[in-house]
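Form 7-S
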Amino acid sequence: CNLQKAKMRGETSECMLLCAETDDGSESVLLTPERMMPAGVRVV
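Output:
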């Protein structure tokens, strides 16, 4: 799920990174959404 702001280790976290990795772990990529979505929507 897309997360609301939260305190983590005393700091405000306002986002989370979404990444994908190859099966063998040799490559990873940062995924970016096509448009903004409201907080709380499910990531599938």
